[in-house]
């Protein structure tokens, strides 16, 4: 085929762009170096028949009706509100921190009305919130910071709280009530048949050709007239000419427990302190699947490996800006997604960005 668009990466960014463009009558070639579609959201049944997320848990949540309705074209949904507990000492406590967390941790009996005044007493006010440490201390004070955030951040990012931009910690709210949902978005659902099935439907269009186990570098010269939509790491596209942008990676230890119907009380348990791993997720909570056994995954953050998270620090943002200038000057290529835009996007944000990017291309390249 002679595609109008060559899209690199079959995750949310690439797949959404592919569908929008194909429905507008464009010929699309979508390639991914992995053996499968779906990017990090790919799911599959393990050897025991349990639907798992090989690249760690992906929980869909959004406040965007537009994004939810768009994805609803390709999947039915299962209502699911994610809940997370954090192990602090011998206790398992709700995170984000809420009234229950504070009362159980300190043996108190605060009412909802009393929690804000308690936090006001323990918080360490910061005039300027420049780092994640500023955000956390300004919100909950030193002890809660040390118990829930400091160690977890060190493991997750390989950095101290004081070395991370404020936006990382700002993602996690503090509540004065007993709301123990991890997210508070209007739409909280999981694809009823899994993410991979949703991606398969999204890419099932005569205008889309999909090639997996295909490296962009091996075919980019075969389609010189195609406009490229690139969703991989932006520094890799430019051969790391300014040096490598820092990304945080993960390794996953999957385990099946044949004689255990339920391993833990909630979908995810965080381990902010003593353990080498950051969290354990039990997939049956997420999917609602019935099975005599259960499958879990432990996550171990690491510096090397596939890029998962852009590392939000001012010096990294400055380096990204240099690559961004190259991207804006480049002809015939559009950069979309978490790695291509070096942004800590959630899935719904990536979908929204991809919809906007694809529509923009159709308006400028009719």
Characteristic key phrases:
single chain; 366 residues; alpha/beta; Rossmann fold; 3 domains; seven-stranded mixed sheet; five-stranded parallel sheet; 12 helices; 33% helix; UDP-GalPyranose_mutase_C; UDP-galactopyranose mutase; UDP-galactopyranose mutase activity; EC 5.4.99.9; FAD
Largest beta sheet: strand ordering: 8-7-13-14-15-12-16
**Assigned CATH class of the largest domain:** Alpha Beta
Regarding quaternary structure, what we see is: single chain
Straight-line distance between termini: 20 Å
Summarize the structure.
With 366 residues, the protein is an alpha/beta fold. 33% of the residues lie in helices and 20% in strands.
Topology:
Blueprint: E1 5-8, H1 12-23, E2 28-32, E3 44-45, E4 51-52, E5 61-62, H2 65-71, E6 77-79, E7 84-88, E8 91-95, H3 99-106, H4 115-122, H5 132-157, H6 166-170, E9 187-191, H7 195-202, E10 208-212, H8 216-219, E11 227-230, H9 234-237, E12 247-257, E13 268-270, E14 279-282, H10 283-287, E15 294-302, E16 309-310, H11 314-329, E17 333-335, H12 347-364
Parallel strand pairs: 1-2, 1-11, 2-10, 7-13, 11-17
Antiparallel strand pairs: 3-4, 5-9, 6-9, 7-8, 12-15, 12-16, 13-14, 14-15
Helix pairs in contact: 1-12
Could you please describe the fold and organization of this structure?
With 366 residues, the chain is α/β, with parallel strands linked by helices. The chain folds into three domains: 186 residues, NAD(P)-binding Rossmann-like Domain (Rossmann fold, 3-Layer(aba) Sandwich), CATH 3.40.50; 87 residues, no CATH class; 52 residues, no CATH class. The protein is 33% helix and 20% strand. A seven-stranded mixed beta sheet has the order 8-7-13-14-15-12-16. It has a five-stranded parallel beta sheet with strand order 10-2-1-11-17, covered by helices on one side. A three-stranded antiparallel beta sheet has the order 5-9-6. The two termini are 20 Å apart. The mean pLDDT is 96. InterPro entries: UDP-GALP_mutase (IPR004379), UDP-GalPyranose_mutase_C (IPR015899).
């Amino acid at each position: 085929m002679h595609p109008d668009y060559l899209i690199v990466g079959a995750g949310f960014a690439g797949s959404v762009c592919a569908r929008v463009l194909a429905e507008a009558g464009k010929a699309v070639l979508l390639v991914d170096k992995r053996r499968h579609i779906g990017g990090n959201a790919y799911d599959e049944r393990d050897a025991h028949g349990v639907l798992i997320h090989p690249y760690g848990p992906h929980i869909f949540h959004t406040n965007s009706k537009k994004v939810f309705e768009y994805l609803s074209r390709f999947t039915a949904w299962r209502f699911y509100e994610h809940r997370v507990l954090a192990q602090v000492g011998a206790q398992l406590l709700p995170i984000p921190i809420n009234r229950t967390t504070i009362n159980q941790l300190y043996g108190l009996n605060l009412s909802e009305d009393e929690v804000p005044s308690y936090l006001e007493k323990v918080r360490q006010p910061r005039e300027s919130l420049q780092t994640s440490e500023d955000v956390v201390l300004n919100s909950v004070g030193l002890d809660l910071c040390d118990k829930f955030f400091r160690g977890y951040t060190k493991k997750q990012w390989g950095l101290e709280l004081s070395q991370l931009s404020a936006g990382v910690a700002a993602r996690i709210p503090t509540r004065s009530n007993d709301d123990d949902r991890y997210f508070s978005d209007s739409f909280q659902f999981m694809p009823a048949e899994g993410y991979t099935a949703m991606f398969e439907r999204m890419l099932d269009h005569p205008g889309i050709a999909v090639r997996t186990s295909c490296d962009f570098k091996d075919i980019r010269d075969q389609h010189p007239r195609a406009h490229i939509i690139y969703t991989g790491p932006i520094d890799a596209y430019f051969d790391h000419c300014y040096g490598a942008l820092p990304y945080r990676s993960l390794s996953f230890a999957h385990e099946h427990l044949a004689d255990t119907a339920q391993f833990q009380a909630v979908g995810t348990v965080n381990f902010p302190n003593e353990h080498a791993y950051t969290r354990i997720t039990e997939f049956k909570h997420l999917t609602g699947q019935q099975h005599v056994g259960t499958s879990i995954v432990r996550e171990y953050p690491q510096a090397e490996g596939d890029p998962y998270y852009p590392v939000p620090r001012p010096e990294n943002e400055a380096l990204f800006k240099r690559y961004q200038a190259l991207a804006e000057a480049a002809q015939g290529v559009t950069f979309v997604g978490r790695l291509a835009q070096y942004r800590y996007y959630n899935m719904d944000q990536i979908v929204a960005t991809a919809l906007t990017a694809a529509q923009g291309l159709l308006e400028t390249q009719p």
